[in-house]
C-alpha cells in the first residue's frame, strides 16, 4: 500500500494514540504526528468512566488499565459549610456494566499503554517533533505541511484526523465556527502527597461553595502510591506568578483543609476553561475528534471520555470507507452522531456540574 493510502493522525494524546491503535489492529497504515518530543505528564484528565472501560476492554487493553489505575467505587458531594451531603455508590451499576466504578488513571498513562500495545505491530509510524502547520486537500487525499527538526516537510495521506487538542491546527484548516464561550475564571490544579483520605474523603469529591468551590481527586501519581489533586477557581485578573507563589498556594489549600504545617506541593497548573463545540467534525477528508472537536470544563471528567468515544465511533466507519465497504456518507453520520451528543449532553452536563457547586441562592443550594 502506498504512503498516500495511509491515515494521518495528528496529536499524541490519549485520543490520538487510541485512534492509532484502532487502525493498527485492523491493519490500516497510519502515521501519527506529535509536535512534542515526549508524552507530557503534567496534570490533566485522569478519570475513565465505565462505558469507556468497556471500549478499552474490547481491544484488549483493560488489564493494563486496571493494573495501573485506582478504582473509584463511590464519589461524594460536600457543602463547604455543612459537610457531606451525598455519597454516590457506583456499585448500583453492577447489573449494567462489568466495570461498576470509575478508574482514576492519568491521561499520559493511557498514552503509555497505547504505545506499549502499538509496539506489538509492524510498520507503526509515530513521529515526534513533528508540528503540523497546515492541511490541504486534493481530489483523493490530504497533504500535511509539517515543521520538523530538519525543516519543513510535506506528508500525504488518504484522510487526516485531528486529535490535536483545544488549539488544533487541523481544526483551524476548516472554515467552521467554534461556538461556545470561555469562563471568566481560570482553574488552578495543585497536586500534593498529603493523604486527604484520612479525613473521610473518597477518591472523587466535589465541595460546593458560592465563593470558592473545590474539587478533590486521588490519582496514582508517578510511583502508583497516589497524589491528590485540589482544583479551585482563580481570579482571572491575577498574574500567574502571584497565583503560583508559595504563600498564595499554601493559603489556598489551607483554606480548604487547615493543618499545622505546609502542604508538599508536587505540581501547580493553571488553565483557561471553555465550553465549545465545533460546527462540523468533517470537511471532506479532514476529520476531528476529542478536544479538537469539543472542549468543556473538567468537572465530571467528561472530555477525555467523550474523545475516546469519538474515535471508537469514527475509526470503524473510516476503515469501512478505506476498504470500499461503505461510502463517505458514513463519515457524515459520525459527524451528526458525535456532534449532536456533544451539543445536547456533554455541554449541558458539564455546565450543570460547575453550576451545582457554585450556586449562590441558599434555597437552591439546600435543594
Structural class: alpha+beta
Query: Which consecutive residue ranges, at least 5 long each, have pLDDT under 50?
Result: none
Q: What's the order of the H and E elements?
A: EHEEHHEEEEHEEEEEHEEEEHHEEEEHHH
- CATH 4th-level superfamily of the domain at 3-72 and 102-179 and 276-356: FAD/NAD(P)-binding domain
What is the compact description of this entry?
It contains ten helices and 20 strands.
Account of the 3D structure:
With 367 residues, this protein is α+β, with helices and mostly antiparallel strands. The chain has a domain at 3-72 and 102-179 and 276-356: FAD/NAD(P)-binding domain (3-Layer(bba) Sandwich), CATH 3.50.50.60. Helix content is 31%, strand content 30%. The chain contains ten helices and 20 strands. An eight-stranded mixed beta sheet has the order 6-5-14-15-16-13-17-20, sandwiched between helices. It has a six-stranded mixed beta sheet with strand order 8-2-1-12-19-18. A hairpin with a 4-residue loop joins β9 and β10. α1 (14-25) runs parallel beside α8 (302-322). The longest helix is centred in the C-terminal third of the chain and has 28 residues, at 329-356.
Output the keywords.
367 residues, alpha+beta, FAD/NAD(P)-binding domain, six-stranded mixed beta sheet, 31% helix
Secondary-structure blueprint:
Elements: E1 7-10, H1 14-25, E2 30-33, E3 47-48, H2 50-58, H3 62-68, E4 70-72, E5 74-79, E6 83-89, E7 102-104, H4 107-118, E8 126-127, E9 131-137, E10 142-148, E11 151-157, E12 159-162, H5 169-172, E13 178-192, E14 204-208, E15 214-219, E16 227-234, H6 240-244, H7 246-256, E17 265-278, E18 282-283, E19 286-288, E20 294-295, H8 302-322, H9 329-356, H10 362-366
Helix pairs in contact: 1-4, 1-8, 8-9
Amino acid at each position: 500500500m502506498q504512503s498516500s493510502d495511509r491515515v494521518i493522525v495528528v496529536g499524541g494524546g490519549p485520543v490520538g494514540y487510541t485512534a492509532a491503535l484502532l487502525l493498527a489492529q485492523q491493519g490500516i497504515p497510519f502515521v501519527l504526528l506529535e509536535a512534542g518530543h515526549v508524552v507530557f505528564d503534567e496534570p490533566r484528565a485522569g478519570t475513565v468512566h465505565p462505558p469507556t472501560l468497556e471500549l478499552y476492554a474490547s481491544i484488549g487493553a483493560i488489564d493494563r488499565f486496571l493494573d495501573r489505575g485506582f478504582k473509584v467505587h463511590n464519589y461524594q458531594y460536600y457543602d463547604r459549610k455543612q459537610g457531606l451531603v451525598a455519597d454516590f455508590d457506583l456499585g448500583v451499576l453492577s447489573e449494567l456494566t462489568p466495570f461498576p466504578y470509575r478508574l482514576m488513571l492519568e491521561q499520559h498513562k493511557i498514552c503509555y499503554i497505547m504505545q506499549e500495545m502499538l509496539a506489538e505491530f509492524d510498520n507503526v509510524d509515530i513521529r515526534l517533533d513533528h508540528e503540523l502547520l497546515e492541511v490541504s486537500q486534493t481530489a483523493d487525499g490530504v497533504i500535511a505541511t509539517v515543521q520538523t527538526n530538519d525543516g519543513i516537510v510535506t506528508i500525504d495521506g488518504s484522510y487526516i484526523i485531528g486529535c490535536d487538542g483545544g488549539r488544533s491546527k487541523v481544526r483551524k484548516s476548516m472554515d467552521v465556527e467554534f461556538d461556545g464561550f470561555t469562563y471568566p475564571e481560570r482553574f488552578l490544579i495543585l497536586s500534593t502527597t498529603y493523604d486527604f483520605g484520612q479525613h473521610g474523603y473518597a477518591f472523587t469529591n466535589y465541595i460546593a461553595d458560592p465563593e470558592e468551590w473545590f474539587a478533590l481527586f486521588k490519582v496514582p501519581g508517578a510511583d502508583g502510591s497516589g497524589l491528590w489533586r485540589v482544583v479551585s477557581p482563580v481570579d482571572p485578573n491575577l498574574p500567574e506568578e502571584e497565583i503560583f507563589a508559595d504563600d498564595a498556594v499554601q493559603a489556598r489549600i489551607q483554606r480548604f483543609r487547615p493543618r499545622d504545617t505546609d502542604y508538599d506541593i508536587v505540581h501547580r497548573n493553571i488553565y483557561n476553561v471553555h465550553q465549545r463545540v465545533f460546527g462540523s467534525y468533517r470537511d471532506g477528508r479532514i476529520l476531528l475528534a476529542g478536544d479538537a472537536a469539543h472542549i468543556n470544563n473538567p468537572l465530571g471528567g467528561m472530555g477525555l471520555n467523550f474523545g475516546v468515544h469519538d474515535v471508537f465511533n469514527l475509526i470503524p466507519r473510516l476503515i469501512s470507507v478505506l476498504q470500499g465497504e461503505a461510502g463517505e456518507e458514513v463519515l457524515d453520520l459520525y459527524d451528526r452522531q458525535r456532534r449532536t451528543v456533544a451539543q445536547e449532553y456533554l455541554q449541558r452536563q458539564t455546565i450543570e456540574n460547575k453550576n451545582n457547586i457554585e450556586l449562590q441562592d441558599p434555597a437552591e443550594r439546600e435543594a
